[in-house]
Structure formats: structure tokens, C-alpha cells
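## retry 2 of 3
previous attempt timed out at serialization; input unchanged, resubmitting
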Amino acid sequence: MNPRAVVFTLLRDLNKFIVLNIVFFLLTLSGILYLLGYDYKETMLMITFSFIFALSFNFILARVMRRNVEKIIQKSFEKVENQLYFDELTSVYNRTTGINRLKEEISRAHRSGSPLSIAMVDIDNFKSINDTYGHVIGDRVLNHVAVQMKNFLRSCDVVSRYGGEEFLVVLPETDEIKAYMAMERVRRGIAKKPVRVGQEKIYITVSIGITEVQYNEDITESINRADMALYQAKKSGKNRIDIQNSYSQSFRLS
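## retry succeeded, writing output
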């Protein structure tokens, strides 16, 4: 629901409440003036001035409340949206949103006939980092890798946390060769920029598996193929990229 629609509904109900209160106030005032012996002309004059004052006051109050309520609701909606769509730790998309964005990009690529590739990125030796430095530093490493990926990729590329220390990257209008070039920049960039822990520097490396998505296959097939390429990269020594094509051939560009 649109935050403005929620504000409009709340203020509409509030306005009804204000009108009823003004009517009640005027009726009460009329009764008091009558009991105090004021004549008709004086009563009407005082009721008119009271009505104008009450209407002006409530109009100003309603405008102030509208601004405040709109801000509160907008912030609440943004908070809920962040919880629904983004990973709290790394601020990239969460797994569900990443999969949904991949589906959207597959449909777009199918309509336009443009290539689409995905990459699975895994932080090397992450368990060792957690065991050595603790989970707080491990969380910093996760966030660091996510930030570096976003820095080296295009704004149209989609980065999501797939699970644990693994990320899914969607690369629109990109074949597997161009995907390799893009992810190689990411791999080198992450390897060159360490995470500082006091006076110590922790150098991070990642292994990456890439595949080009086929329009006529199930989405899980593409992800599994990228995972197979990632497994091969890990098995072959880590800190490298492997490509798995739709013919189940794994290879690495020099």
C-alpha cells in the first residue's frame, strides 16, 4: 500500500473526528451562553467567532499532523521494505529478492534477445576467518565483500546474499566472456583491498563460478551450473574464476 494512501485514510478519519468535536463544542457553547442569559445576537456573534477560531486552529493542526504522520509512515514503510527485500548485514538484496530479480532479468532478456549471465561468489577460507578473529570481524568481512562487489559492478547488475558467505550476482546483457571480465575485476579488487583489524590487515579472496543463462531452462538449472563452476574454482585452488556452459563443460579463461 502507498504511504500517502495510508496518510489520506488516517487524516480523513481524523477530519471527521475534528468536525464532530467542533459541532459538539459549538452546541455546548450555545447552551452555556443561553443559560448565562446572553441574547440571540450576542450568542450568534460569539458562536461565529468561536467557529472561525476552532476551524482555523484545527486546520493548522491537521496540516502539521499530516506532515508528521506522513514522515512516520514513510519511515515505517522503508524499514519494512528493507527487512523484506534486503539483507540486514550486507545491505544487498536477500536471497528471495535476488531470485525474483533474476526471474525478471530472464524475462527481459528473453524479450530483447540479449544475453544474461550469473555468477556465484564465495569468500575463501571464511570459516577460518570466523574461528581466528570472531564473528564480529566475520560480519565485517561479509559487508566488505558486498561493498566491493557493488563498487566494481554496474548499477544495473544485481547483487544478493545467497546464503552464508555466498553471493549471487546477476549480469544483464552480458555473455559469459564479458561476465568473466567483469567478475575478474571484482576478484582482483577484493584481493587488493584488505580489512583492517587494529594494526593487522586481513586479505580476502573469493572464488567465482559463472554461467550464461538459457531462456528455455529452469532457473535452478542455471544456478546449479554456476554452483558447479564455483565448486571447480574452489577445488582448483581458490581465488579464481571458472565458467560452466550449458553443455556442462567447465573451463577457465587465461
